[in-house]
Every structure is written in structure tokens, then in C-alpha cells.
Amino acid sequence: MPQPHVFTIILNTNRRADTLECLASLQKLTYSNHIIIVLDNASTDGSLEAISASFPAVQIVRLTDNRGYAGNNNVGIKVALEQGADWVLVLNEDTILDPECLTRLMKVAESDPKIGIAGPLVYHHNEPNVIQSAGGRLDEWWYGHHIGQNEDDRGQFAAPREVDWISGCAILVRRAVIEQLGMIDERFFYYWEETEWCLRTRKNGWRIVHVPSAKLWHKGVQRNYNPGPSVTYYNTRNRLMMLAKHHASVTVWLMAWWQIGRTLTSWTVKPVWRSKRGHRDAMWQGTMDFLRQRWGRMPG
Fold this sequence. Notes:
- It is a single chain.
- By secondary structure, the chain is an alpha/beta fold.
- The protein has 2 domains: 6-218, Spore Coat Polysaccharide Biosynthesis Protein SpsA, Chain A (Alpha-Beta Complex), CATH 3.90.550.60; 229-292.
- Helix content is 38%, strand content 23%.
- The strands form 2 sheets. Strands 1, 2, 3, 4, 5, 6, 7, 10, 11 and 12 form a 10-stranded mixed sheet that branches. It has a two-stranded antiparallel ribbon with strand order 8-9.
- A hairpin with a 2-residue loop joins strand 6 (115-124) and strand 7 (127-133).
- The longest helix has 20 residues, at 250-269.
């Protein structure tokens, strides 16, 4: 029986070195029925020339406008489906895959026709045995948490198991899920989009499975990760959008509004949080844009 056809989608924006290193790790994969598509977001660092020279089999799609993580990756997903993909792996350009990663992901993913999304065990790149994400969970207030984050890998995640969501740095999605439920919601632009995609999938009867034997190292979101105000904007607006889209309970809504109000007040009146004024403004703007139903890219 032939292997299912897997397409990997990588979005590159002036990250030549990272993308080349990622592609080099993909070349070593033991899974053979595999096509790679690089989506280039108007890079000016010589990425296109370097990729073409080093990896001539890689397909390159030039993007004409920036639609964020969600919209840009949807371009690649559409191309992959048109070319007959059975599964699509949406992959960050700053990741390094173990040679067995895709083989082990696919072994589990194909073991049950109700598995719609699968993901690997993600480690910090600069701390190779420290876990960044062993899948994700949503708590009672609908906040997202990476399972096992910053724990040393002691074998505590030994077997595949169901989770609420998979980290967007490497998310493997079955074709039938995309055909039934659609691609990534482009209104999110960036942040919370993979969580919403997984939630949408689970609500429609599909399983979301984390596969710890499949290993990957991610350079982003290290322990000292200190995001800028734009992340505060997207985190605020998009979490509220997800609550609305999936009809969160009144209790969850009350908690969300209380937390936003408390944080805005604290970042405004307490001198110790003076450095958070940019984040305060971004949170306020994200809240107002949710109420205005203004989606997509953050203004300015």
C-alpha cells in the first residue's frame, strides 16, 4: 500500500538561514512520499536564490501580499490540496526535525481515520532536552497552555494521547478535515489561529493527537521570550474572537472582561508597570477592534 502523500508548507520572510537549515533537516526525513512548498513573503535577503540553488526540488510560491500566518499559509494549503495532498504539515521556518519525525507522526495519524490533526513533541532549540510543547490544553477559562512547557524530558510523555490543540510551529492536518471545515481562519492573521483550527476540528468529531516519539526543535518562544505590544494586541483581540466564534459561556466571558479591565487598570495607574504602556495601548486597541469587528492585520 503506497504511503499517503504529505505536503509540507513553510512560510519564509527574510529568514534565509533558518529556512535553509529547516530544509536541510527535511531532506533527511525517512518518510519518502513528501513534497515541500516554501511560501516566500517578498523576501529581500536572497532567500529565493539560496533555496533554489541548494534545494532545487522544493517548490517556491511567491506571495503578492502579506496575509499573516493564517492567510499566507492558506495559500500553500490550497496549492497542496490542488496537487493531491492527503496530509498537510504546516511548519515554521525556524524548526529542525528529527529524521524520523514525519514517519512517526504519520504512523500514528494513519492508525485511526478519526485522527484529524497530529503534532510532534517540540523542544527548545537552545535547550535540546527541554520541552517547549507536548501539545496544548484549554483551561476552564479558555486560556491556552503548552503542556510540559520548560520541563526536562524525562520520558513523562511516552505514548500518543489526545490534546486540545497542537502548536502552530508544526501541525499536521488531514485533507478531509480541511475539506470539511475549511482552512485557517484568516481573520486571526496571527496568534490563536491554530488553537481555533483545532477547536473547530474537535467540535466536529475529529481527534487531535500529540505524538511524543516524533521530535522537533523550535528556535522561537524560548524561555526568555519577551514579545512586543503587537502580540498583546493579537492575543487580546483574537482570544475574544475565539470566545465569540465558539460561543463561550457567560462565566468565561465575565472572566475575560474582568481580566482585561484589571490588566488595563494596573498598566495605567501603577508606576511599576510604566514600561507596559505600549502593551496597555495594544490591549486597548485589540479590545476595541474586537468590538468593532475589525480583523486581519494590526493597524499601523
